[in-house]
Structures are given as structure tokens and as C-alpha cells.
Write a structure and sequence with these properties.
This protein is α+β, with helices and mostly antiparallel strands and 626 residues long. 43% of the residues lie in helices and 18% in strands.
Length: 626
């Protein structure tokens, strides 16, 4: 932070232009992000006295050490930038969407011989998307069923009529689950008819498939094939979950989202009903952290900006419980994303109004039911940290870092660093270390290397940022922990203390001591082993930290072992990377087939040029081809 920053002087320099302003505290942390049509007027308003801002904003203003701003060409550009910055920094004083959820979609590709795929994102391609759905398992079951019923391909081979992609079709063809367009005998029209039937199902005509499954289940039961009957029953349940008999239908066939909320104190729940093609295909709720002074309009507006900035699908209409002052601006923004007009409607009477009321009732039920869960969650996180503070006699423990070492008899030594903030894992700050200086199974030496690299890297980045006059309090390495949690007792703690002393860093170090049964029994701090209540939330948090550090290290170690084991003779051929290797393996049934192929045959493989074919042929035959 620049200590010469004069707020009053900087307020006078603000331009009268649209843009985004960023409020920071004395630690350079972003505490609030907002947008403005006129930066000069909007930012100055925070620093005026007695204008009835409310205690929440007053508390935020008292923490402002300095501010920044970014000028944009329009208010719409400012809205987009505001969303991006809020998502990046997650400021304390912005109304925040607590749980970022992604929903499964069914994707029908735009190829001549389309495939039906599971997708978590909706790209701007020529494919058709159906959803969103609320059950990933049900979507996968439904895709599997559709592919089996209509015998659609599941491979990603480039197929065309009259062109055989492979010498023989795959297993799906032989068991009657694919018409094998890879053999070049199925016309685009014939295959397209099958796809159209599948699209009809996805578009809402579920009855034929449901009736067929019910018939198959009855026949299996009557023939005493109960295992098959149970399997069909489970599949039928999945289909009904995706294509359930709708309680809410509308003959206009439009896509719309119904949005409503319940707000009590600093907690809010927004309920969304997803209506696609006139049918409600699902509903979902979202928790938001806000303040007591926030209005319904503030919460709904923040939710729409944060949620629809990340969701892959924007419906044509949205029904809201209240008017928004920025309705026109948000409609323009959503329309730009959708590439067709989006309408925001606040229904006052009739069936549409009843839908919004129904969503609001659901939101209220969820908020009331979840109050106790939220209290328990706070006990598991902030309450657990407070217990650890009391045991150690330390205050202000926000960021905890834990480390672990993994190897098998000294093979591929690796280290892991996990981070917990306010009792919750901060996975974006996790880091992996491949040990460079230790050859054998020496955990102490490995830990010394990991800790040295972690803090030297952090110190170097801090210095680099300080030289540039930039903040040194961001990032996983530049931010140092309030305490180091070592997985072990005196030995591991002493290693950490030695490293910190060498680097002239003053950070508390605590050992998480385990008993002979590998269960946590206490904390080692200041040369004393402190007992810990095994029924308390503090003990449970320590166990979670230990388990997470161990899991992260083991996962990294396994990935390295797997990479070491996955090897092909094709990797030895100059110029053949993963993409060309994959093309070769898809085009030929075995390495021997590749070896026996002539240059012309190799050139037919997608992505293999004639120069590549010559190198591959020469590799197997020992003589260079010109």
C-alpha cells in the first residue's frame, strides 16, 4: 500500500465517467467492488457524513485505506467488469453467492453423424443443448439409454459415408448397440432419422420410451429374471427423474427461470425454478451472504449478476419478485450473452405471480430448515479455530498451512501444501512439490526442502512485488500462514523452526501428534504436548487438516507413478506426440498394424503428414525413406 495516498485529494481527481471502483483496506485486501455511471459522484458519496448509508456500509468505509478505479466506455462494460472482479476477489462487503454450482446438460453435436454427450458447460458452438438438469447420475443413465435404444455412436472417430474409418467395428456394434457408421455403410439420412427420434425424446416426448421400459420390466418379472427387472426399474427411475411428469406446464413452450428469495438477518436463500419448453425440469436453491440492511432488490440484483455471469444457459424470460432499478441494463447484458432478447418480468397477478410466490415459499422453507445447519457449519469452522486458539494461547489464527511427504521406499518423493482459512480448505492455494535434493526415504530432509522452497519462493515474490510498488498480500506463496501445522511431533516441528530461523521468519509452529494407532492425540507447541478434547470441533478440524494434507500428497504421488508407467513404443518416434499417437491408435488395431502399414496407409491417418509417415515407417523398418 502507498502510505502517501490522500483520500480527499484522490476524490477530487475522480473522472465523471462510467467505470468500476475497488475499495482496499490497510492490508491491501479488496473489501468492496462497485460500478458507477459517474465515478466522481458515486465514490465521493461513500465519504460524506450523515447520509443514511446504514451500519454495514459505515463499517466498510471505516476500513477503506485507499481505492482504485477502472474507467469503461459504458455502464454495461462496467457491469461486466464488476462481475469479473467480484468473482476474482470475493470481497467481504459485497453480497456474495456462497455456493457456485454447475449443472449437467445433454449435448447433441453438430457432426454429420451426431453424438449425444454429457456436458457441464454450454459452449457457443453449433451443438444443441438440453437442460440444465439437477441430477448428473440421471443424465448419464438417460444418455446411455438413448444411445442403446437408437444405436448411436459414442466414439469420437471422424466418420463419413462410404469411408471405412476402422478395419472392424467396435464391441458396441457386435452387441447390437451401435449401427457402426465407422464402417461407411450408414447414410447421413438413415443415421439422422435415429437422432431425430432421440431429439424428440429430449424435447419432451417421453411416453414411448417410458412405456417400453415398463413393458420390458414386466416381461422380465414374469420370466423370473428379477436381476434384469431391477436393472430396468432403476433405469426407468432415472428417465423419470430427467423427464418427470411435470406439475407445472405451460402451453407456450418458452424457456424461463422463476426467481424468488427469503432474507433473514445476514443470510439469504434464492430459489430458482427452471422451466424449459414450458415444463419445469428442476429447481435449485442458492445461499448468499449479505447484510441486514440489504433489500430484496439488492440481493436479487447481485444474484442475477453473479449466477448468470457463469451459467452456460440464459433463458428467454425471468420472473422476479421485485422491480430492479437496473432492469434495462441487466436485460441488455443478458441479451448480449444470449445473443437474443431477454425479458425481465415482475408478475403482479395470475399464474405467473403464483409461480413466484411458490418459489418464495420454497426459499423460506429452506432458509428456516438450514438455520441449524448454518450454525453447525460455523461451529465446524470458525468455532473450531477458536478452540485451537484457546488450546495454544494464540489469537488471530485465520490462515493455517499444513505439509505432508509421500513416497514408496524413497521412490518419487513428493510434498504437499494444503491451506485452511477460517476453518475451511482453500484449494486454490494448495501446492505440490516434487522433491529435487533427496534421493532416499528421508522425510525430515524432504520436509526441510519443501518448507525452504515454499518460503523462499514467497519471499522472492514479495520482494519482486514490493519493487514494483504492488501489493504483497495476494497469492498462495506471498501470503504467509498465521500458523504452521506439522504432521508430527518434536522432530517435524524442529525442522520447521530451523527453516523459519534461517529465513528470519517469525511464524508459530504446531505439531499434530499421533498415537501408536495413527490417531491424533494432542498438539505439540513450545516444547510441550498439549492435550485436546477428542469430542470437540477443534480436534475434528485438526483431523481434517491432517487427512487433507495426506490425501493431496498421495494423489500427487499416484499421478506421477501413473505417468511413469504409461509408455508406448510410439513415444520413441521423433515428432510423434500425444495427439498423433492417439490418432494412430484409433486408426489401427495394434502396434503391429502400424509397423506393417506402408507410407500411403499412414498418410490416411488424421493429423499424419507425409513427412510424419516417412519418419514412422523408417523407425520401424530401420531404413530412411526419402
Amino acid at each position: 500500500m502507498d502510505n502517501t495516498f490522500d483520500i480527499q485529494d484522490e476524490l477530487n481527481k475522480l473522472p465523471k465517467s462510467p467505470g468500476v471502483y475497488i475499495m482496499r483496506d490497510k492490508n491491501d485486501d479488496v473489501i468492496y467492488v462497485g460500478k458507477a455511471v459517474n465515478l466522481h459522484n458515486r465514490v465521493r458519496s461513500y465519504f460524506r457524513e450523515n447520509i443514511g448509508r446504514g451500519p454495514w456500509i459505515d463499517r466498510m468505509v471505516r476500513l477503506i485505506a485507499y481505492f482504485e478505479y477502472i474507467v469503461t466506455d459504458s455502464e454495461l462494460e462496467a457491469l461486466v467488469l464488476e462481475n469479473n472482479l467480484i468473482k476474482e476477489h470475493r470481497p467481504k462487503y459485497n453480497t456474495m453467492l456462497v455456493d457456485d454450482k454447475t449443472y449437467p446438460y445433454i449435448k447433441v453435436t453438430s457432426e454429420d453423424y451426431p453424438r449425444i454427450l454429457f456436458s457441464r458447460e454450454m459452449k457457443k458452438d453449433r451443438a444443441r443443448y438440453f437442460g440444465p438438469y439437477t441430477s448428473a447420475a440421471a443424465v448419464k443413465d438417460t444418455i446411455e439409454l438413448i444411445n442403446k435404444l437408437y444405436k448411436l455412436r459414442t466414439c469420437n472417430a471422424k466418420v463419413a459415408y462410404g469411408k471405412r474409418t476402422t478395419d472392424r467395428p467396435c464391441l458396441n456394434y457386435h452387441i447390437g448397440q451401435c449401427v457402426a457408421p465407422c464402417q461407411g455403410e450408414v447414410t447421413v439420412k438413415e443415421y439422422g432419422a435415429r437422432v431425430e427420434q432421440a431429439l424428440e425424446f429430449l424435447g419432451g416426448n417421453y411416453d414411448p420410451i417410458i412405456k417400453k421400459l415398463e413393458k420390458d420390466m414386466t416381461e422380465a418379472s414374469e420370466s423370473l429374471d428379477f436381476e434384469r427387472a431391477a436393472s430396468i426399474r432403476d433405469l426407468l427411475g432415472s428417465v423419470r427423474q430427467v423427464a418427470q411428469k411435470q406439475k407445472i406446464e405451460n402451453s407456450d413452450g418458452e424457456d424461463r427461470d422463476i426467481i424468488a428469495l427469503s432474507h433473514k438477518e445476514a443470510d439469504a436463500v434464492v430459489q430458482v425454478f427452471f422451466i424449459r419448453g414450458g415444463r419445469m425440469i428442476g429447481r435449485e436453491h442458492f445461499f448468499l451472504k449479505t447484510d441486514e440492511e440489504s433489500t430484496d432488490e439488492d440481493i436479487v440484483s447481485s444474484f442475477i449478476k453473479q449466477y448468470y455471469a457463469g451459467t452456460p444457459y440464459i433463458p428467454k424470460e425471468m420472473y422476479l419478485p421485485c422491480e430492479l432499478t437496473e432492469t434495462e441494463l441487466i436485460e441488455d447484458w443478458l441479451s448480449d450473452i444470449r445473443r437474443s432478447r431477454v425479458h425481465i418480468i415482475v408478475p403482479k397477478i395470475g399464474q405467473k405471480h403464483k409461480l413466484v410466490e411458490l418459489a418464495a415459499q420454497n426459499a423460506e422453507l429452506i432458509l428456516d430448515k438450514d438455520k441449524e445447519r448454518l450454525k453447525r457449519e460455523q461451529g465446524r469452522t470458525i468455532g473450531a479455530v477458536k478452540e485451537i486458539e484457546d488450546i495454544l494461547g494464540i489469537k488471530g489464527l485465520t490462515r493455517m498451512e499444513a505439509f505432508d511427504i509421500s513416497n514408496i521406499s524413497g521412490f518419487e518423493n513428493v510434498g504437499s501444501m494444503v491451506v485452511f482459512e477460517s476453518g475451511r480448505p482453500k484449494r486454490s492455494d494448495y501446492r505440490k512439490f516434487k522433491i529435487k535434493t533427496v534421493a532416499g526415504p528421508d522425510d525430515y530432509a524432504c520436509m526441510r526442502e519443501v518448507l525452504t522452497r515454499r518460503f523462499k519462493h514467497g519471499l522472492a515474490e514479495r520482494q519482486e512485488l514490493a519493487d514494483k510498488g504492488e501489493s504483497t498480500e495476494f497469492g498462495s506463496f506471498t501470503r504467509f500462514p498465521d500458523i504452521l501445522m506439522m504432521d508430527g511431533g518434536r522432530g517435524q516441528v524442529n525442522i520447521a523452526l530451523e527453516v523459519l530461523k534461517e529465513l528470519k521468519l517469525d511464524i508459530p509452529v504446531c505439531g499434530m501428534v499421533k498415537d501408536d494407532n495413527h490417531r491424533t492425540r494432542g498438539l505439540y507447541y513450545n516444547n510441550v504436548e498439549l492435550p485436546i478434547d477428542r469430542t470437540g470441533e477443534g480436534f475434528k478440524l485438526i483431523t481434517r487438516i491432517q487427512d487433507e494434507a495426506h490425501r493431496f500428497a498421495i494423489t500427487y504421488h499416484r499421478s506421477l507413478r501413473a505417468k511413469d508407467q504409461v509408455h508406448s513404443v510410439l513415444d520413441e518416434i521423433p515428432g510423434v506426440g500425444p495427439k498423433k499417437r492417439k490418432s494412430l491408435m484409433m486408426a489401427f488395431d495394434s502396434i503391429d498394424d502400424i509397423k506393417n502399414a506402408d507410407i500411403e496407409k499412414l498418410c490416411e491417418v488424421d493429423g499424419i503428414r507425409r513427412s510424419d509417415a516417412k519418419i514412422i515407417y523408417s523407425f520401424f523398418h530401420g531404413d530412411m525413406v526419402k
